[in-house]
Design brief:
Layout: E1 22-24, E2 30-32, H1 40-44, E3 48-50, E4 58-59
């Protein structure tokens, strides 16, 4: 079993990229990180992999800039 600290970031300053699911990128059908179906060697790599269709081991991360709502 591989364990990572909460809020442990990678070299690109992205937190918690490995473990539950790989993260589908918005370009060229690529996924980063690794998921529950991947072998340890894949999860530990920083490389991306090709994803051709939706599956149970690839997800996505919503990224946005928070702004206060002014009435």
């Amino acid at each position: 079993m591989i364990s990572k600290k909460v809020k442990d970031r990678n070299k690109n300053a992205i937190y918690n990229l490995r473990g539950n699911v790989g993260e589908w990128l918005d370009e060229n059908n690529l996924s980063c990180g690794g998921g529950w179906v991947d072998k340890c060697e894949i999860i530990l790599k920083q490389d991306s992999t090709t994803v051709m269709y939706p599956n149970a081991w690839t997800g996505f991360r919503v990224v946005f800039e928070w702004r206060e709502w002014n009435n």
